[in-house]
């Protein structure tokens, strides 16, 4: 078997492509493989409903990537990558028609919060300014391999308020928002962003994530990739090819082949083996690498067992919509101009009930729904005078054990998904968007099971390669033995969202893994 490639990257999602780009830029001959029909993974854009209606299948907002140096380092604008910064990043709407909006202008956001609490508005100004002061430090944390737990503890102990910071990192959303905000509406406005990572109001770590997410969006924007999120991985793919890298789609890996405890090839599901001379790096979820690609024979039963208890988080449920024109929100036009809309009652108790129902295996009666106004921000994604959007229920069970709606029989997603979609559309139409139901030209529904069928790394219908939990973060993500992008096999690496800093569009795991790999090659 002839060694053809220096490096093989498994998975052409945005992190896999980012890693491949830096390896190719360093002079390695790189092949990237993906089981899907195109590159991008969960950062793809497709006409899933009707021709001319371009839906981002999963990722829509470009947030943490605002802190990434990758677009500049790889000159991605030369390959068609461009961003739109909305005037309104997101809005939270309430059943009575009330609204708070995160405007591009901090002053406008302060005023919007001030309709419910002027004190909360000034508190938000202070919190956003705190992010500005810490932005460079946060970017360095995100775009570097994680410090070891021991090193992080030493660093924290040397900070003037290190123990306060440690408390904040572990604090729940409810605890923190009750401390700093007086209006329940403000608590929901800031706190609902933690739900994007399946963190409930009483989960550890929710406070820090909500502050970080909301502050980053306030200062740097909930930007959108012009023409669809797919244009980010497409730009990375073009850069990779410009450096001699190759990409094969429709090629699913089922084994990493070892010889003398080193990877020497990858085997595809059709039996083809592709030789590699230096290294293999995987952008898939960490379970596939540990359990499927390497396995107990290579890694031992202890690591396999601990990988099997890795926590994935709550599942997602998506409704893609082609609409016969823009929507009219009960809360007014600012909601229609927002990249995201969060529609909920103004209580943290509402969020608690959702997570209780979801984690008990129940179909939540009124899940937290993220409304993505794709074409309101990027009109070219839909035909003239039409609209495209998606609704994401952020907290549903993967395995159904009951029904909190009281009207949907069945315990398999294939049996209940359309009825559940009917229920959610009815809920939004009756409470928040009166013309939603009548505007729908076509819808396509993806249950958690559908998501996993399309993208195997969407394990149990999740999209972050593992739950955001204190014991699955930093150098502990996904497991301590794998927390520096390395595996026990010396030339097999991880570069996906199952590694620091985690899920979402950031390009950080891919870039960080490339730093580690190139450092190892230099020191070899």
Secondary structure layout:
Elements: E1 5-10, H1 14-25, E2 30-33, E3 45-46, E4 55-56, E5 61-62, H2 70-73, E6 83-84, E7 88-93, E8 99-103, H3 106-114, H4 118-142, H5 149-158, H6 162-170, H7 173-180, H8 184-191, H9 206-220, E9 223-225, H10 231-242, E10 246-248, E11 253-259, E12 262-268, E13 273-282, H11 286-294, H12 296-299, H13 301-308, E14 315-323, H14 333-336, E15 338-343, H15 348-359, E16 362-363, E17 369-372, H16 374-377, E18 387-396, E19 402-403, H17 413-431, H18 436-439, E20 440-446, H19 448-454, E21 492-494, H20 508-523
Helix pairs in contact: 1-10, 1-20, 3-4, 4-9, 5-6, 7-8, 7-9, 11-13
Describe the structure.
Interacts with COX5B; this interaction may contribute to localize PYROXD2 to the inner face of the inner mitochondrial membrane. This is Pyridine nucleotide-disulfide oxidoreductase domain-containing protein 2. Keywords: Oxidoreductase. It holds the Pfam family Amino_oxidase. Residues 16-518 form the Amine oxidase domain. The protein has 524 residues and is of the alpha/beta class. It folds into two domains: 5-41 and 229-310 and 464-523, FAD/NAD(P)-binding domain (3-Layer(bba) Sandwich), CATH 3.50.50; 61-227 and 314-462, Polyamine Oxidase, Chain A, domain 2 (Alpha-Beta Complex). It contains 20 helices and 21 strands. Strands 1, 2, 10, 11, 12, 13 and 21 form a seven-stranded mixed sheet that branches. Helix 4 packs across helix 9 (206-220). The longest helix is centred in the N-terminal third of the chain and has 25 residues, at 118-142. The chain starts with a strand and ends with a helix. The mean pLDDT is 95.
